[in-house]
Design brief:
Elements: H1 19-38, H2 42-48, H3 54-81, H4 86-104, H5 109-136, H6 143-171, H7 176-182, H8 184-194, H9 218-233, H10 238-246, H11 251-279, H12 282-301, H13 308-333, H14 339-367, H15 372-391
Helix pairs in contact: 1-6, 1-8, 3-5, 3-14, 4-5, 4-7, 4-8, 5-14, 6-11, 6-13, 9-14, 9-15, 11-13, 12-13, 12-15
Length: about 400
């Protein structure tokens, strides 16, 4: 599809949502069913089956996420430079699909690292072009709604995935590897569904030249810098899972609490996106960062497993208030012909910080105390909320959704 006017893009059955966004939501649904079937089981598999220390788990997740970051940076820039979105999206989803059987046959933790590398590389390659395509086909006034819808569709899969994975885990007598192998099939369904999504070529930059990074603007870099600070304390969610087990929850109880978290952010993502269109991105992101700070403080001070359930539930609100809304915020700042680049820089940089934060969290867990990584996250979350509130006030005369 050529770079048609947004008004010419067909609507979906959901009011305010364009058809390509709706179809990408279906793709993400199947992919997240697959990924979340195994995600809460992976740290338990690594520590109890292949014998990886917690520090190695942090390293694995950090390397995996930094790989995704490199992929985001490169693919976002390429999608703007080559004026294509869909080919990169297909490659990304394909890589994540083949990673599932690779993890199933991993006998030692370095092999599991390789499987996670392939999976996260796929996520990195697809994320920025996919989000840029959604921005390309969406009117500015419904941008938060579209990103919120996609996040909600994605997170419906994130609710069903762990439930299916847990059911299989129990039915198959705690056979981790077989669950990982079965997860290949919904991922394959997502790749097949992707064939229905039309290409939508991005706007060409002036005189056929790519914009320099400085053209992304001061407000983009302020938000990006704050997001890096936040990410420094936001280590991989595997530490929440390990902390739950550390507080006395069984594997089944831990996965059930994780499902509750997914259910909350599934229910909240679409309304949060709509609210950001109406009240401004900043006014949704600030409470999101504050909620994160409170939840991590709770995980640091909890002394019994029953605290995990309400903490995971509230944690779902943080994701709903920040993930899709943050991407819409970036699009608000970026020129139309540099959306892929801006999303690549933002998601890539934040993801790269996960390497640092996850390694630091693993070392703090092993050398200081399991509560230490969460105290760090609480402090950076609170600081980030204050900085966004102070530094990203809406300029006079600016649209409300610019923050």
């Amino acid at each position: 599809m050529a770079s048609d006017a947004v008004e010419d893009i067909p609507d979906s059955p959901i009011p305010g949502i364009k058809l390509p966004v709706f179809l990408l939501g279906i793709v993400s649904f199947f992919t997240d069913v697959s990924s979340e079937m195994i995600y809460p089981l992976v740290p338990l598999f690594l520590t109890s089956v292949v014998g990886a220390p917690v520090a190695a788990v942090g390293l694995i997740e950090g390397v995996a996420e930094s790989t995704a970051s490199i992929g985001r940076l490169a693919s976002g820039w390429l999608s703007d430079r080559l004026l294509v979105r869909k080919p990169l999206i297909v490659i990304g989803y394909g890589l994540s699909t083949i990673a599932k059987p690779l993890l199933a046959v991993s006998a030692v933790w370095p092999a599991a690292l390789g499987a996670r590398f392939v999976d996260r590389l796929g996520k990195g390659v697809r994320t920025a072009p996919r989000d840029a395509l959604m921005a390309d086909v969406t009117p500015e006034e419904t941008r938060g709604r579209s990103f919120g819808f996609h996040r909600a569709a994605d997170s419906v899969g994130a609710v069903l995935g762990p439930a299916i994975g847990l059911g299989l885990f129990e039915a198959l007598s705690h056979h981790y590897r077989l669950v990982f192998a079965i997860a290949f099939f919904p991922a394959l369904a997502g790749v097949i569904a992707l064939s229905l999504v039309p290409e939508h070529r991005p706007k060409a930059p002036p005189k056929g030249k790519a914009r320099p990074l400085r053209d992304l603007g001061t407000r983009f870099y302020i938000f990006f810098g704050i997001s890096l600070l936040f990410a420094f304390g936001n280590s991989s969610d595997v530490f929440l899972i390990l902390r739950s087990q550390n507080l006395g929850l069984t594997a089944a109880e831990t996965v059930s609490a994780y499902i509750l978290y997914n259910a909350v952010y599934t229910a909240s993502s679409f309304p949060a996106g709509i609210a950001s269109d109406r009240f401004g991105r900043r006014n949704i992101i600030v409470p999101g960062f504050a909620i994160f700070a409170l939840v991590y403080l709770g995980f640091s001070t909890a002394n019994h497993g029953y605290y995990v359930w309400p903490l995971f539930a509230v944690y779902g609100l943080y994701i709903a208030f920040t993930d899709a809304v943050g991407k819409a915020f970036v699009i608000d700042f970026a020129p139309a012909d540099a959306r892929g680049t801006a999303l690549g820089v933002y998601t890539g940089g934040v993801g790269a910080m996960v390497l640092v934060s996850s390694v630091v969290a693993g070392e703090l867990w092993d050398r200081v105390d399991p509560a230490a990584p969460f105290l760090l996250g609480s402090a950076t979350g609170l600081a980030s909320a204050v900085l966004v509130f102070v530094l990203l006030r809406t300029p006079a005369g600016a649209a409300v959704n610019s923050g």
